[in-house]
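Tutorial, part two.
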Amino acid sequence: MINQNNINTALAAADASVMLESAEQLDAAIVEWQNCDVIGIDTEFVRERTYRADLGLVQFSDGQRVWLLDPLKTGPLNSLAAFFEDSKITKILHAPSEDLDVLLYTTTTCPQPLFDTQIACAMLGESLQMGYHKTVEWLLDITIDKGETRSNWLKRPLRTAQLHYAALDVCLLPMMHHELHKRLLNLDRLHWLEEDCARLISKARVPIDPTQIWRRINGNQRMQPEALAILQKLAEWREHQANRRNLARGFVIKDIALMSIANAQPGNMSELAELNILHPRVLERNGRNLLSMIEEVQQSDAPVCLPDTLNSRQRKMLDGMRKVVQQKAAELSVEPALLASKRELENLIFSASNDSLPERFLGWRKDIITNDLLAIMRHSA
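Running the prediction step on this input gives:
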């Protein structure tokens, strides 16, 4: 049964959060956190025009107190690294993939061991995409404010309403952990969560491969081989540009423009300009580089990396695998995507050619679903 006194204590802490605005204050707080078994963590950031998220605030809570760290005032956050890697303290976050990215960039590491409350809820039968506020409502039966979701977290001073919203986003995490941990333990699913959270950390540490970024561009499957080769070259170049200049990819060149250039294959500046897809400044800055890359691909005899596509036999195999996943998910009272999404099943099928299983299908999923999926693949071969 949820302890209402603990809820009241956590909410009161959100009303009296401690600001950390200097390196000395941060170091003193870290000493306090080292006495905790668990600590809730959240971040607020802005990522509209930049390649990397700009961190605006980091929130911490032990369930009785809340600390709000202002990285614009404390300076570098390298002192958090050792605390984040302290294996004796469980770090609780909700849907942390973006938080992990920004914290890895700003502190050189990720909070671990990790307890993701979103995945924990999914392992108890709730939606795999359930947001923090809905989770609080489902688990603790309380409603909290969502009014500052779209705030500018880089503008100073931060308003009182922003600070209170940020504190509410973290103050209940330790209590949520306690309840979810207990329920997962009762269902013998705690090791499920531990494996998936360790996988989240590993995934966050793997940098983006610029040579594979073209796979994220919708419509690449319908392109002719030479146009696809050009798209791959242009997308890789754009990725390096976006990273170097810290610009969102679309602010370098939009996806649709890359697709149009790759399909049209202009041979000079006039033809490139006639496509009418690039701003004059972008055309002037990047036009000759784009043309040079097009020519380089046209003169190359290197094989084109084609997108993975299922043949008719594999599509039939996929249908059978999805039915097995749905059946097993119904037995476990969880969403099918927790076991394996359609895309992950496709990856499993493609992996047959190199004789290695995707990591997603190892660990706790192996006995529950993987062996049945592999049996379907063998029978369909």
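The chain has a mean pLDDT of 95. In part three we will examine how such features are distributed along the chain.
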